[in-house]
Amino acid sequence: MIRKENIYKFFSSPIFAILVIFLLINIFFIVKAPDSFFQLKNYVNILRQSATIILVASAATILMMTGNIDLSTGSVVAFSAVIYALCVKSGLSLIVGGAIAIICGIIVGIINGVLVTKFNFPPFIATLGTMYVCRGIALILAKGTTVRDDMPLQIFYLAEKSFLSIPIYIWIVIITLVVFIFIEKKTLLGKYSLAIGGNKNAAIFSGINTGIIILAIYIVVGIAASFAGIMTASRLGAGDPRGAYGFEFDVILAILLGGTKLSGGKGSVFGTFIGAVIVTILGNGLSMLNILIFWQNILKGVMFIFIIVLYEKVLKNIGNKSLISLKS
Amino acid sequence: MGEINSDVIISIDELHKQYEGVHALKGVTFNIKSNSIHCIIGENGSGKSTLIKILSGALDRTRGDIKFEGKLFNPRNIRDARNQGVVALYQELNIVDDLTVEENFTLGREKNTLGIIRKNSDLNKFEDIMKSLSESISLKTDVRDLSTAQKQIIEITKAISEDCKILIMDEPTASLSEEETSYIFQVVKKLKEKGITIIYISHKLREVFEIGDYVTVLRDGQMIQTKNVNEIKKECKGVIVDAYNELVRMMLGKFVVETYIPSETDFTQKIIEAKNIKNKRLKDVSFDLFKGEILGFYGLIGSGKTEVARVLYGIDSYDGEVSVKGRKVTYKNIRGALKTGIAMIPEERRADGIFGELALKSNIPMMKINSILKNGFLNRLKENILADKYIKKLGIAARNRDQKVAFLSGGNQQKVVISKCLNCESDILLMDEPTRGVDVGAKREIHEIVRDFVKQGKGAIVFSSELPEILHLCDRMVIMHEGKAISIIKNSRQLDADKITKIIASGGVVNYDS
């Protein structure tokens, strides 16, 4: 009885739906571009391309589970990339430069978190504000141009070196998934995030310190975004204050594709991972088919709306049907 | 039966409803007489929700006939049933708080010229109907300023303005104070005068005797009995308590009477001592809670009883002194209260108590997450064991521990909230309206849980606007009125509702005896 129910639950869950969609997209590209797409090299490439989204979106999934949102991630990526590049340029070691960039990410996280929890700003407004501020600071620090001169060669190591013959970027993806799935399933942060997103009042009445939890998660997202900034700077060998435009929306897209609810109370880091890969694969595969970037955007949008409708209308109905019959 | 028109308006014949695996209605047959107030009672799961959903067109039946005014009644959907004159009012109100009364009436049928709203001529009709039901509402008021009862009047007005012949009311008084309840009753009686037939669903059996003409008792999907309320009264020679117990017997299939059972209170040990508590809503409240005692706070909505609970639970600030176990406390938030050993079951179960979208097993440890940690991380095995323990201990009726709490019945949801509080092993339990919207059987079980709790040398404070609950459960009761504790009365089996009402009416002669 229980087992049958669980199977039913799995088949009507967003995770199952997105896995099917993931598979269909793959089959489509394998058929359309058999020589270039279905190659181990290409898949590794896709994972590398999506590494920064996976990192930030995994952290932001936990945040969205509480019913919060962070729009400043793209700006923080650019901001910390510029800081990192400037530090390295001035002769600081990569480690010190990285640490400074991450401290900047932590500070933005604290500002976001304090605005939301102490001053009761709606998350959308608070992080929209820091989004503009961070972008502005990045442009001022970089004097409006990309910080690229006098870079040591080692700056490319993170993006190009391998460890145990697996690229470091892939290691980052693996570690990200392990850490955030662990946070989601096994720690108080994950448990309380679901509780806060599910029913904030009940969480407060249960004695859960909702402010500290939300603040902590904003800081985690800040750290993830600044590390993504370091990764971006390592790939380009430069700090681009205009980089990562729209990155925050790719992050949100990946999270929503993964079945996390915008209002919180429900979410999955694994789903976000698949969501992030789908976003990247669409770009990768469509480029191989020589489809213009403008069309790629349209397809991305249509795909997104289609999948959300699938979750909200179709799957919900299937789920409700099974529940109603057992309710009365 | 002489005083009412005895024509049958609805006849239900061998009505069956089968969901996958569940036989919710097993051949229900009874008649509803025209222009009567017909009550339907039964425990959760007895099939009454299914029955009214079928009547209102929200659900299809599996088999059986319903005749409405002699013709077969097969509504395709809610809209269709409404057009034929059968309207259901559900517990969740269907009105927009941000609009005025007038705007709510015309919502969805605004008359317009090129999108610009014109004055609606139907409005006069609305106003007439509304005024005939209740004088106190004005068309221009914002709905958010109205009480729940007044909002219901607006819903009722909307319903009967559309030529409604049968009005189905699903627990209209579940979240109302006594005052508001009597206000709704007046309206229901006026509806009857207008010739409308009312099908009235309630958990509060008292209400059956107050307004019902007929009562149908459902149990396990079967119709147990349909009776004229006056006949029941006659059979019991006018003794309401006996009539009440008769209904309970029909509902549960067994005879259970609840009476006050004194707790073994240790009057030498105070666990709470509150002196001269004052804040915006409270004017001087003092009381003690002893070890092993159930203390009751009784008062109408607005009397300040919920405010006392909020002060003790660290939500509201106050002047005055509260000592717990002889030590003055200074906590200013809920976490502080929990650390001091005070847990609370909030009044609004859905809004403040449960995590509806989460599984039962995830809800239970929420107030003391340590109970499912192993080496600092969540442990699934411990979580399961904990859930099973409380499912068994409190008799929570759920399919399994993974079921979402939102899909449990009111009584079982409340048991989940209580489990949450019991699990945090506090010494003092504050319970605000612990059995609101809970059926009779579960009510008794919850009262038993409270008695068990204080037996362990702990203390409980029950805040309730239901006098019978306070009289059955509490050892002493604090009567609240306009923010003041006007009297503290020791309970005994001789005490009844009349005496308490007299004390309130007299403004409360303080006779503190313990």
Protein structure class of chain B? alpha/beta
| Separate helix tally of chain A | 14
* Strand content range of chain B: 25-35%
In total, the number of domains of chain A comes to 1
Distance between the termini of chain A: 18 Å
Biggest interface between protein chains, with counts per chain? A-B, 29 and 37 residues
> How many strands, what sense, and barrel or not for the largest sheet of chain B?
6 strands, mixed
- The string of secondary-structure elements of chain A, in order, is HHHHHHHEEHHHHHHH
What's the β-strand tally of chain A?
A: 2
Number of helical segments of chain B? 18
Question: Could you tell me how far the N terminus lies from the C terminus of chain B, measured between alpha carbons in angstroms?
Answer: 50 Å
CATH class of chain A: Mainly Alpha
Helix proportion of chain B:
25-40%
If you average the pLDDT of chain A, what whole number results?
Answer: 86
Helix content of chain A: over 70%
Task: Tell me about this structure.
The complex is a heterodimer of chains A (328) and B (514). Chain A is mainly α and 328 residues long. Chain A has a single domain (17-26, 34-312), classed as ABC transporter involved in vitamin B12 uptake, BtuC. Chain A has helices at residues 2-11, 14-32, 40-65, 73-89, 94-117, 123-141, 157-160, 168-186, 188-198, 200-205, 210-236, 247-257, 269-288, 293-327; strands at 162-163, 166-167. A two-stranded antiparallel sheet of chain A has the order 1-2. In chain A, strand 1 (162-163) and strand 2 form a beta hairpin. In chain A, helix 3 (40-65) packs across helix 13 (269-288) and helix 4 (73-89) packs across helix 11 (210-236). Chain A starts with a helix and ends with a helix. Chain B has 514 residues and is an alpha/beta fold. Chain B is built from 18 helices and 24 strands. In chain B, a hairpin with a 2-residue loop joins strand 23 (476-481) and strand 24. Chain B is globular and about 70 Å long. At the A-B interface, helix 9, helix 10 and helix 14 of A face helix 11, helix 12 and strand 20 of B.
